[in-house]
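Team,

Forwarding the record for the chain on the shared tracking sheet. I've put the sequence and predicted structure together so nobody has to dig through attachments.
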Amino acid sequence: MTTLTSPHDLLAAVPFLVGYHPTNSIVVIALNEETIGMAMRIDYPEEVDLDQIDTLATHLIREDADSALLVAYVPDAVFDSEYLLGPIRDAIAMRGIMLRECLEVRGDRWRSTICDDEECCPPEGNPMPSHDESRVAAEQVSQGQPLPYGSVDELRASLSPAGIDPALESALDHIEGIDYEGEEVVARQREAAFAINGLADEFAEKGICTDTNRIALILVRLHDLQVRDYAMGITTEENIDTLWSMWRWLMRIAPDGYVAPVATLFAVTSYERGDGALAQRALERAFDDDSKYPLARLLRRSFAAGWPPSSFAQMRGDLHPKICAKLFGQ
């Protein structure tokens, strides 16, 4: 993310940080020196929720922030936001973190709640800056970042099913799962791992996979925890963008009953890339497919607790060698 030098920059940056133009939201952004960390967004609460406020403040600690930015997108029905923003500012200050800016957005106007200069920040607020003319937006697009979605509903739609391929459904019927009482457990897990490697290679080259049998094999075997965790472990700094696109594509073409494992892989990858909003929406897809899917439940708690994205890379670094040793004997 580019350097933020003004409230206009901050307002332009928030949609890129959360993935869409938020409404009725509280957004807290961690800063370490001048480096922008993870943004955390929650729905604007009707009443003060001390647990939620603690979660926001703890997010900054986990991100090793030395300062923070706070933006409140206030619902029309709320006339005075200070009942909520005051406790949030206090919670941040109690943790020794400096609040660099606190903005209140109402409709198409904004104001700073920590600026006493009425010429700079009049009580009625200033007009919202044009997103199309923003320096921040131009720099983000030039760096390859997609434009934010107009709303959370548009973001959800971008992850919705793309339609079921009859050939894929037929192929799924011919793929054997893993019989845990048989002798071929590791061999079938290993076969799935090789298929995942092949999918990643083909996707890196073509941006799509045309091998229906390979896709079917992966979707069936991802129900195995070793296979799914192997798939999670192949992520690196070099390939994370490719795998992010791959899991998103696979999630959209997966039929019902096969979505949850892929959606959680996409959720982890999104979160690690800093796309917290996409990660949350991916978990919605997982829960729609399997309301009790254990990894989705674990990720929901982890995201809510504000786990730093780096923690997933560390977890992967600890787990992946052990999985490889079991599958490949080394």
